[in-house]
Amino acid sequence: MDCYTANWNPLGDSAFYRKYELYSMDWDLKEELRDCLVAAAPYGGPIALLRNPWRKEKAASVRPVLDIYSASGVPLASLLWKSGPVVSLGWSAEEELLCVQEDGAVLVYGLHGDFRRHFSMGNEVLQNRVLDARIFHTEFGSGVAILTGAHRFTLSANVGDLKLRRMPEVPGLQSAPSCWTTLCQDRVAHILLAVGPDLYLLDHAACSAVIPPGLAPGVSSFLQMAVSFTYRHLALFTDTGYIWMGTASLKEKLCEFNCNIRAPPKQMVWCSRPRSKERAVVVAWERRLMVVGDAPESIQFVLDEDSYLVPELDGVRIFSRSTHEFLHEVPAASEEIFKIASMAPGALLLEAQKEYEKESQKADEYLREIQELGQLTQAVQQCIEAAGHEHQPEMQKSLLRAASFGKCFLDRFPPDSFVRMCQDLRVLNAVRDYHIGIPLTYSQYKQLTIQVLLDRLVLRRLYPLAIQICEYLRLPEVQGVSRILAHWACYKVQQKDVSDEDVARAINQKLGDTPGVSYSDIAARAYGCGRTELAIKLLEYEPRSGEQVPLLLKMKRSKLALSKAIESGDTDLVFTVLLHLKNELNRGDFFMTLRNQPMALSLYRQFCKHQELETLKDLYNQDDNHQELGSFHIRASYAAEERIEGRVAALQTAADAFYKAKNEFAAKATEDQMRLLRLQRRLEDELGGQFLDLSLHDTVTTLILGGHNKRAEQLARDFRIPDKRLWWLKLTALADLEDWEELEKFSKSKKSPIGYLPFVEICMKQHNKYEAKKYASRVGPEQKVKALLLVGDVAQAADVAIEHRNEAELSLVLSHCTGATDGATADKIQRARAQAQKK
Amino acid sequence: MAFPHRPDAPELPDFSMLKRLARDQLIYLLEQQHEVDKLYKVENKPALSSSEQLCFLVRPRIKNMRYIANLVNADKLAGRTRKYKVIFSPQKFYACEMVLEEEGIYGDVSCDEWAFSLLPLDVDLLSMELPEFFRDYFLEGDQRWINTVAQALHLLSTLYGSFPNCYGIGRCAKMSYELWRKLEEEEDGETKGRRPEIGHIFLLDRDMDFVTALCSQVVYEGLVDDTFRIKCGSVDFGPEVTSSDKSLKVLLNAEDKVFNEIRNEHFSNVFGFLSQKARNLQAQYDRRRGMDIKQMKNFVSQELKGLKQEHRLLSLHIGACESIMKKKTKQDFQELIKTEHALLEGFSIRESTSYIEEHIDRQVSPIESLRLMCLLSITENTDKAAGKITDAFSSLAKRSNFRAISKKLNLIPRVDGEYDLKVPRDMAYVFSGAYVPLSCRIIEQVLERRSWQGLDEVVRLLNCSEFAFTDMIKDDKASSESLRLILVVFLGGCTFSEISALRFLGREKGYRFIFLTTAVTNSARLMEAMSEVKA
To answer: Which residues of chain A have pLDDT under 70?
Structure first.
């Protein structure tokens, strides 16, 4: 391990920078990088190259090609550029490629070269053209800033929610600024631009001149400016070869450096690590790379090839035709362990472990040394942390082995940090693989989160790897495997060369009943690709019928939607479909559809009952449902009609319907009601008073009460009121009138069909005991006891009961023997009972 | 009296959680979210309130939407602007929104939902308070509430664990059950780990047994319901009961110690029991005499309050009893009961028919006459009598095989001598020993067999061959105690007589029954639900 620090370059006293190779690129670049528009997404994202034919004076006749590669140079897409001249390329946070055209149009492509959408940066640009554009990232998403031919800036802080902001004019600006950049402060995007020796800050309200504190004199122009990844720091490169580094707010200077190179650099980017005190900027010229910071000397590298810098959270990626490297400040843990002659606990532990493997006793010595200082925990932690920052699996392993070795000598070292690091590194090594080509560092990975990493794998259609990672990390299915399978299925439905059956089957085989997978979402995607049949097939797998319905409606499969809605048992859903159908189909078809769906039909009927009575009638008509039609008209005769003629007419229609329905009883009853109505009307006209809507019974009663006995008799005959009912009716009415004379006459008119007990009862109800007694004598023997009890003649009732030798009657009388005077009677009954038992 | 439970009877699950849930939600909804300060009933008339905001808490019915629309439109005509909020419970229906739209007020109101479905009326009785369920489903064929039922069952299983044994009969029972299962599947994981608290669930459609619901009730609680109408577990006792000049609203549940002892009793025992109780109470009061100061102090501080409370309840129930006696012990009630029993037993049909005719001739009450005709129609399996009266009733009179079922299930107990109502032998006591409620008998038989096995003939006679189901979900975690707890779900309502009968069965067998019903019903409510006037 002697040469391990060979690629470490000190910058000042306290920091080392190292550059190591990520990939050797074997992309078959036809062009020189310098001839291309280049965009590389941060977090080890893809690289887009567009040979720039528009830069040259004479427009080339060949159309340029837009190529997209993974960070390892694996081609992802290649397409012929057919649109207008492009000014700038950039990747959004969702890894969508934004291509800003000269006419202000921004075309958005997916990772695989699939066109997504486009938007415009405003009409003003159409005449003035776009001179320059930047794609930048803020906490809100990805933004675009453009500089127009009129030297005005327009920006949108989030292309997902496009709001264009035209920035104020810079007073007296006649030519394009020598350099500019977007800043992001207090959640607002600003633009910093340099014109000659002056710097201006544009926010959406004003343009203000700013002066960096402590800027060396003699500057007549700024050639390059760079903002750090987090927008916290700013670096300015002047025409005097001087670099100013300070805060992005321009309130504080951090350091400065004079490199004495006056040639404008090709690129300048910050290279710093989160939570590190070191600040450094990487400046690239054609053949030279320089790392400068707060130190008198800089680190210099020679560039063999045309290279491109990609700023990252914790360093800089540098790629060229043949290699892809990473330059960063050596993290503290690694520095502690690997620095030459380091006595840090981690370094000792690593050494101890190596000796242990050699079976050397020195292992014990080293270990003792750490333990004596009580630094074993720290040593283990250092090794774990350093492992995370190593790129080579070999080195990761040896550090982890050391940590594991050290752990053995600790009583209570929580294992999770070790375990988690092992897991993280496995994931990282997997995605760093050449074929995958996402060279994430540990810090970047933690910043990005596993969820986003999974999204990016899905975006690259690396479904199996994503699923393996989910399973390996034991992520909950809904967040992990299910989500990925759903994405996979959504991708699968776009494969137009596979038949609907095969796609549906393949999807179902893989997804099965995985929780959290929504087949309706996948079906919606299939429908979005114009594959309606496939969508329907996929919906068949959706277990929740309710979820199937909205899409089926959208696909105009309303009838299928209806049966699905009915299956779901959700009435509301059925109703939604019904009203949809009602508008979509003509009335006849609609009714026919309903006819086969009794549940929907009854639902619709109910709705019609309240809201559309006429439709209800049509429905019954359509079905030749005469019974219901009859009932409908009966209801109408009460609710809708007020005039007697109208009511009778409605009843007539009802009666006709009932005949058609072969419901003779209902028809006859309806006809009777018609007759009664007419008759009541006549009675009202002739006699006055209220008759309408009385029942037949009440009509007759009213007539009797009014003294119209003849009429009452007539009515009873006309409507064939049964004798028994008529007797009850008359009896009650006459008693109400207290017309006892007439009642007696009536009782004697012929033999009562209801017997005479009712007479007793009714008289007693009117509290006329005298009259009641008259009738009690006429009550037949079977009911005699009851009658006598009713009029309160307990003694006689007892006699009759005894005479009848009827046990039930005896107990009935006995139960009435409550008064003090009934004592004798009670005794009598008891005696009779005793006698009966003797026999 | 008030038969004690067997010592091994399981404890009932705690439903107070549901109560708290409902109360807190309502308070939050009304007070905090909408700052409601006064409550009115939603009716088809102008609002009296001068408030700036009206909030309607309604069932999702088209009728209610019309009321609201009328009110809003009246305000509009009067040039008044207010805010309107409609809270649908348990859920909003698309049809309602449609009506609001058609009435042109969709833009004026905002809508909300309150997914409330279970109200614990008592320690063993949960009601969904959906009296409209019966008419909507069984008459109109509207299945809108099935989803609500499934949701309610889902809520129960999340709170009290899944049910290892499920039984059901009836089309609605089956649909509700299947929908509920689907909900469980969609949301699995949460309930799976729970130890089941209730071992059995039994779903039963009301149309399996209309007979029982159509009978006059004679156990105390049922009789109180028939006479005074119990609403939401409380009853308004009028002046004739309270023997004062005002009415009194009384909560009727297990917390009323007096009521709890008589609720399941046949009415003939109640009065005797109450007077005995009164004598005991008097005796306890009388103990005061001859007490020294210390004892008296003790008595006042510890016993007097309880005694007074008991005294108050006792006098209320005695009042209620007297009032019921006045109405029900008259000759005609005895005759009525006699006729009903004759119909149930299927003898002296001619006399029963002429009794019903006389009932009509006397014009006693159209609803009562119809009820008797329905009973006649179902028990005699003819639709000649009732079916023709109105189309609404013809749905009741669909082919019923009551006679055959009654024979098969032995619903009419053979009694030698007097049936001792004080010491009931079987569930028939709730109908004076004349008839075992069909619904309860079905439940008893299935629970005994743990399936429908051997009941094929009954199921066929009930016309339910496709809709009788058993589902055992093997669960080793179910304790033996939970396996003696049975949740009976009545779809379309149940009567207090059925509840009393099953409570009796539970005591006999060492089970505890819990009841979930769409609403508590009785014969009058059933008949009213079918007439259009009230609907």
So the answer is: 1-3, 52-61, 513-516, 819-820, 839
What pLDDT, in 10s, does the model give residues A135-153? Answer: 998 877 899 999 998 888 9
Q: A606–B140: do the CB atoms touch at under 8 Å?
A: yes
Burial label for A302, CB within 10 Å (0-12, 13-18, 19+), is exposed
- B136: DSSP letter: I
Residues of A in contact with B66 (CB under 8 A): 610
For residues A385-405, b (16+ Cβ closer than 10 Å) or e, as one string? Answer: bbbbbbbeeebbebbbbbbbb
pLDDT in tens, B92-101: 888 888 888 8
Q: What is the pLDDT of residues A561-571, one digit of tens each?
A: 888 888 777 77
Residue in the structure block whose two tokens are 């031919």: A149
- Residues of chain B neighbouring A728 (CB-CB closer than 8 A): 358, 361-363
| pLDDT on residue A613 | 81
Contacts of B345 (CB under 8 A, 6+ apart): B412, B434, B435
ipTM above 0.90, yes or no: no
CA distances for B58 relative to A360, A606, B53, B185, B342, angstroms: 85, 19, 16, 31, 43
Q: Which residue of A has its CA nearest to B63?
A: A610
List the 177-196 stretch of B: residues with Cβ below 8 A of A.
178-179, 182, 185-186, 188-189
- d(CA B157, CA B149) in angstroms, rounded, equals 12
Compare all CA atoms of chain A with the CA of B366 and give the residue at the minimum distance: A695
Cβ contacts of A728 within 8 Å, gap of 6 or more: A754, A758, B358, B361, B362, B363
Query: B49, B81, B116: which is the final residue of a domain?
Result: B116
Q: Is 2.40.128 the CATH number for A1-18+217-330?
A: yes
pLDDT, tens only, A76-126: 999 988 888 899 999 998 899 999 998 899 999 999 988 989 999 888 888
Q: A352-360, long-range: CB within 8 Å, 24+ apart, which pairs?
A: A352/A402, A352/A405, A352/A406, A353/A398, A353/A401, A353/A402, A353/A405, A353/A406, A354/A398, A354/A402, A356/A405
Chain A residue with minimal CA distance to B332? A761
Interatomic CA distance for residues A639 and B59, integer angstroms: 24
What's domain A31-211's superfamily in CATH? YVTN repeat-like/Quinoprotein amine dehydrogenase (2.130.10.10)
Does some domain include residue B214?
no
Is residue B499 very low, low, confident or very high in pLDDT (cuts 50, 70, 90)? very high
Report field, pTM of the whole predicted structure over 0.95: no
- Does the CB of A602 have a partner CB in chain B at under 8 Å? yes
Domain-wise residue ranges, chain A: 1-18+217-330, 31-211, 339-586
Helix (H, G, I), strand (E, B) or coil at B486: strand
